[in-house]
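Please produce the structure of this protein holding MTE.
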Amino acid sequence: MFVHRRRGWEIPEREATPESQWTRRHALGAGLAAGASVLAPSLVSAQGAPPPDPTEGLYPVMRNMRYRVDRDLTAESEATTYNNFYEFGTSKSIWRAAQALPLRPWEVRIDGLVERPRTVGFDDILKAMTLEERVYRFRCVEAWAMTVPWSGFPLRQFVEWCEPKSDAKYLVMQTFQNPRVAPGQRATWYPWPYTEGLAMDEAMNELSFIATGLYGKPIPRQNGAPLRLVVPWKYGFKAVKSIVRFAFVAERPKTFWEGLQASEYGFWANVNPRVAHPRWSQASEELIGTGGRRVPTQLFNGYGDFVADLYTNRQNERLWA
Ligand code: MTE
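Below is the modeled complex.
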């Protein structure tokens, strides 16, 4: 029985984005849409530090209060310094190394079973989408969790913009490949580029989100700039970072972790406290930034009301990791 009826998520009103900031974002967004150039062409400033992000003026954006959580937000300093991004190393402390990633130009390929295969700049995607903020729980398969305010757009909106054909059954998403800036990609035993996928009905679910911002700012490189997937009912490894390709396909793709260790990481990877990882329990999770406090893990990470129906006809699949 998959249906999980609990709806206890709540966010204190004080955490909502003030209207003054919302209005500011729209004024700036309109400028961008009208072609006002805010893009810095150079990749690196004279001092050698990355240049300011050209989308900075777009954030913060209005929080969508439909998505509520019953936990405190994780401190920004924790969420931006405790990361998994194997392209930059296998430790959690890759945030400095990730600053080497150039974000402009950032071209995104849309291909496979679509009406018009094309390559688009990230800024053109932003102009076409409506941004909002969502606070979601985030649960890594390693049994730690955060609660994070993402900014971005519903994946559904983007999929419709891509005009997939009716025979597209899966959406494949891939990270950039550039071993010159991402030393982890020089390790040839990993199946680079990092590849993830969703069934089309999962991609069209209202929770599926593309994050372009975090904590009311452009998303930092270590968290997957300039755009990354967020699917909060699944383990975090599904949340592919720094995407350069969206391909619509008929067959289920082989994903990065499946290619590496299929016995431990499958395609569906839905959160379930009762299905242990082969090497550890998934019954509870550590809340990052709380000094090690653990809480019980919830089925579908607490999002069963939104997603359980996706799996009623997939009972024969390995749904849980
Ligand atoms: N995407 C890429 N390209 N490379 C990665 O190593 N790690 C995944 C996911 N996306 C990963 C990735 C894993 S295992 C997790 S838990 C999340 O990113 C971590 O996201 P965060 O660092 O923003 O918390």
